[in-house]
């Protein structure tokens, strides 16, 4: 495990253990080149500490690239709490976690992620001010899935314009994997845009709630079944690793554009996506609406201001797709290059003395 940490490019990894509360967590800071690292807290029943570490390292790096490409003055960080949130999440666990965040003295700002919600951030904030994504009642930005879904929708419109010459999604068949916070809100936006939606989720309750609101959507029983349906756009909105060689071979889509993090499960899969003629809208490019929302909270949250900025994901996505087309790089490699260029450029400015 230690060798894995020191072979990575991460600045800092903190292992948090409070025996009395049962807290076991890992905070990973990939980079603070652009400013304090920002990223959510995932509460998840990992099968091993190594799996938790791998997820924290992977997600924190993705956050650094996401924040950079979104134009934010924040580096990339992520935290994972090991455990089943339905069984192990409590005030004491969350407050113990907040103490560890506070010990980083502002190098890391946390927020919601899988298994955590805005009321949880209110509890963490009782121990540290380095928290975003708090409830509206506590002066926060609230549920960041609102603008995450909005950003994915804008990225999808940009991908449609690049592929089909029109931003309209009317009549386009969109297959969504995941009916959680982002998938359900994205469904709402797509239904309003007259798209044809097919969806799956392992939670029958989530599916029932969504189908109750939108009876004309089609529900299938599994992700494997979803990936084989006729579609124009595939939208992974659940856990990462959605696109591997097996799923890509089964996929009948012209565009991949979704809210899930770390969608590409294998090295080189971006090349195979391009070779198949599928247009991939890089995940951390299009799903940046949530971090834009919580970053706005740092300055005193204004929803309309944050939404305008999240709408800019359309232009960012189009820039990535057009640059990739002109250079011959994959869209994933292009997004990485643009993010890295900004991190390096802004980091260099730190050497300039701004004077008094």
UniProtKB/TrEMBL annotation:
Xref: Gene3D superfamilies: Leucine Dehydrogenase, chain A, domain 1, NAD(P)-binding Rossmann-like Domain
Any GO MF annotation of the entry: nucleotide binding
Pfam families in UniProt: ELFV_dehydrog, ELFV_dehydrog_N
Binding-site list for NAD(+): 178-183
UniProt-annotated catalytic positions: 78
Membrane spanning residue stretches: none
InterPro entries according to UniProt: Aminoacid_DH-like_N_sf (IPR046346), Glu/Leu/Phe/Val/Trp_DH (IPR006095), Glu/Leu/Phe/Val/Trp_DH_C (IPR006096), Glu/Leu/Phe/Val/Trp_DH_dimer (IPR006097), Glu/Leu/Phe/Val_DH_AS (IPR033524), Glu/Phe/Leu/Val/Trp_DH_bac/arc (IPR016211), NAD(P)-bd_dom_sf (IPR036291)
Keyword NAD: yes
Glutamate/phenylalanine/leucine/valine/L-tryptophan dehydrogenase C-terminal domain ranges (all copies): 142-351
Residues forming coiled coils: none
Family as reported in the entry's similarity comment: Belongs to the Glu/Leu/Phe/Val dehydrogenases family.
Entry protein name: Glu/Leu/Phe/Val dehydrogenase
Source species of the chain: Nakamurella leprariae
């Amino acid at each position: 495990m230690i060798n894995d940490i020191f072979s990575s490019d991460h600045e800092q990894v903190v292992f948090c253990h409070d025996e009395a509360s049962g807290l076991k967590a890992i905070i990973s800071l990939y980079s603070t080149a652009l400013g304090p690292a920002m990223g959510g807290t995932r509460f998840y029943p990992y099968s091993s500490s190594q799996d938790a570490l791998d997820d924290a390292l992977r997600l924190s790096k993705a956050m650094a690239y996401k924040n950079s490409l979104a134009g934010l003055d924040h580096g990339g960080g992520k935290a994972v709490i090991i455990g089943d949130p339905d069984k192990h999440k409590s005030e004491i666990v969350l407050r113990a976690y907040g103490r560890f965040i506070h010990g980083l003295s502002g190098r890391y700002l946390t927020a919601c992620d899988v298994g955590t919600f805005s009321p949880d951030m209110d509890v963490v904030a009782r121990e540290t001010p380095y928290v975003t994504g708090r409830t509206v009642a506590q002066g926060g930005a609230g549920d960041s899935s609102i603008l995450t879904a909005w950003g994915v929708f804008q990225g999808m419109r940009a991908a449609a314009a690049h592929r089909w010459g029109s931003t309209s999604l009317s009549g386009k068949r969109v297959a969504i994997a995941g009916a959680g916070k982002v998938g359900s809100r994205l469904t709402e936006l797509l239904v309003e845009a007259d798209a044809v939606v097919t969806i799956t989720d392992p939670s029958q309750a989530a599916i029932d709630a969504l189908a109750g609101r939108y009876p004309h959507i089609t529900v299938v029983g599994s992700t494997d079944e979803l990936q084989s349906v006729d579609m124009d756009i595939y939208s992974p909105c659940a856990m990462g690793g959605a696109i591997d060689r097996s799923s890509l071979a089964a996929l009948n889509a012209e565009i991949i554009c979704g809210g899930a993090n770390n969608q590409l499960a294998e090295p080189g899969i971006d090349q195979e996506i391009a070779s198949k003629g599928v247009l991939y809208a890089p995940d951390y490019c299009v799903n940046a609406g949530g971090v834009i929302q919580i970053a706005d909270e740092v300055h005193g949250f204004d929803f309309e201001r944050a939404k305008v900025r999240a709408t800019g994901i359309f232009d960012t996505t189009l820039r990535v797709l057009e640059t990739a087309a002109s250079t011959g790089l994959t869209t994933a490699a292009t997004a990485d290059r643009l993010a890295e260029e900004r991190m390096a450029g802004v980091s260099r400015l730190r050497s300039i003395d701004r004077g008094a």
